[in-house]
């Protein structure tokens, strides 16, 4: 299959436990009427991000991904809203970013343990 070979360029991705601090992340990807399933083993998704950001502050370097990553997302979201409002496509100017996140930046930490709650109910 090659880019643009299908009549409809659509897929559906479902993720279970995508934003939880514990447990496996399960996913299902449906494309061309076929569904593939898998899981990502449990790991701490937040600690590496916080530690890297902290190191950037201490060492005086820019984090990656940085605010440009967020700006690119906001541009797309605003264009989607405008398109929905007008019923017309919204063309975005090219957005070049000099540096992109790399696989080498990936950091693994063991899964977080559920905290002990003191006189409160768990959030979910």
Automatic annotation (TrEMBL):
Cross-referenced InterPro entries: Gfo/Idh/MocA-like_OxRdtase_C (IPR004104)
Family annotation (Gene3D superfamilies):
Dihydrodipicolinate Reductase, domain 2
Output compositional bias ranges, type Basic and acidic residues. Answer: 97-116
A Pfam family of this chain = GFO_IDH_MocA_C
Identify the residues that the record assigns to the Gfo/Idh/MocA-like oxidoreductase C-terminal domain, covering every copy: 43-92
**Domain of life of the organism in this record?**
Bacteria
Q: What is this protein called?
A: Putative glucose-fructose oxidoreductase oxidoreductase protein
């Amino acid at each position: 299959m090659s880019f643009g070979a299908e009549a409809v360029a659509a897929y559906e991705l479902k993720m279970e436990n995508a934003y939880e601090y514990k447990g496996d992340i399960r996913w299902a990807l449906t494309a061309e009427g076929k569904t593939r399933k898998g899981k990502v083993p449990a790991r701490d998704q937040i600690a590496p991000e916080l530690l890297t950001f902290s190191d950037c502050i201490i060492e005086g370097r820019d984090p990656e991904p940085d605010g440009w990553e967020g700006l690119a997302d906001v541009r797309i979201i605003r264009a989607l809203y405008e398109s929905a409002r007008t019923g017309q496509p919204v063309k975005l100017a090219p957005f070049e970013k000099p540096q992109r996140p790399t696989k080498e930046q990936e950091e693994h930490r063991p899964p977080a343990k559920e905290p002990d709650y003191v006189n409160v109910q768990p959030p979910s």
